[in-house]
């Protein structure tokens, strides 16, 4: 049995190719063409025991073989690894404005889902004549509100979980690896996922804040940035 220790993700450099790492596969996703056709190549996000994350791109020529291996590895790692299931690097709502024009797709946000209106799926047709699913809602941290739009499979999964799963109210959502729009709204990219009332200390802390009566007043007075819409977008809404 080899006594060689595992290398931390933070130590990886291009000068070598014989690294030995121990990581958890926390997400896999594929990109898609403008017509909605998925690429054969895919992406993987890995995390080590220090909760360092790294993105891996798997080219099409070895996608099938590696995807099968990853599927087997994930079944084993659930029983054997001590690496956490997930790790978050939260942005405060007020900081989202600073990254709205940047090509950043690993933004993690936590907030309370505002249920002042029914959250439903809406069928849309894009400029290419393709059908899309969409759901819109808002989250708050007590001082500001942020609009969120989920699309297609993620939108469908979100609405189903919100309606079918018995959840403590109000629902606290963690959105990880999301995209920040120009008007400081959030939407999903390929790597985006969400957690409702997740067992995490950040959710527990926000739940404690909810016990304070003043926090509910803050939620009611929380500010929402005005959103600029084109005429076509207004008609769709």
UniProtKB/TrEMBL annotation:
Pfam family, one: DUF223
Domain Replication protein A 70 kDa DNA-binding subunit B/D first OB fold: 5-72
Entry superkingdom: Eukaryota
InterPro entries assigned to the protein according to its UniProt record, in alphabetical order: NA-bd_OB-fold, RFA1B/D_OB_1st
Official protein name in the record: Replication protein A 70 kDa DNA-binding subunit B/D first OB fold domain-containing protein
Species in which this protein is naturally found: Heracleum sosnowskyi
């Amino acid at each position: 049995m080899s006594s060689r220790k595992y290398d931390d993700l933070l130590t990886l450099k291009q000068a070598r190719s014989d690294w030995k790492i121990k990581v958890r596969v926390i997400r896999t996703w594929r990109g898609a063409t403008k017509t909605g056709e998925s690429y054969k190549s895919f992406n993987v996000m890995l995390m080590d025991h220090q909760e360092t994350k790294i993105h891996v791109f798997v080219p099409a020529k070895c996608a099938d073989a590696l995807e099968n291996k990853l599927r087997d590895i994930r079944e084993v790692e659930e029983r054997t690894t001590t690496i956490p299931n997930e790790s978050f690097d939260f942005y405060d709502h007020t900081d989202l404005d600073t990254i709205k024009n940047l090509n950043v797709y690993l933004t993690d946000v936590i907030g309370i889902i505002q249920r002042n209106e029914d959250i439903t799926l809406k069928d849309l047709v894009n400029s290419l004549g393709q059908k899309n699913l969409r759901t819109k809602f808002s989250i708050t941290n007590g001082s500001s509100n942020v609009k969120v739009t989920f699309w297609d499979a993620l939108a469908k999964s979100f609405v189903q979980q919100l309606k079918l799963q018995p959840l403590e109210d109000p629902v606290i959502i963690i959105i990880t690896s999301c995209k920040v729009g120009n008007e400081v709204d959030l939407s999903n990219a390929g790597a985006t996922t969400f957690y409702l009332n997740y067992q995490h200390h950040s959710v527990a802390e926000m739940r404690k804040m909810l016990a304070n009566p003043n926090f509910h007043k803050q939620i009611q007075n929380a500010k929402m940035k005005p959103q600029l819409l084109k005429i076509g977008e207004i008609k769709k809404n």
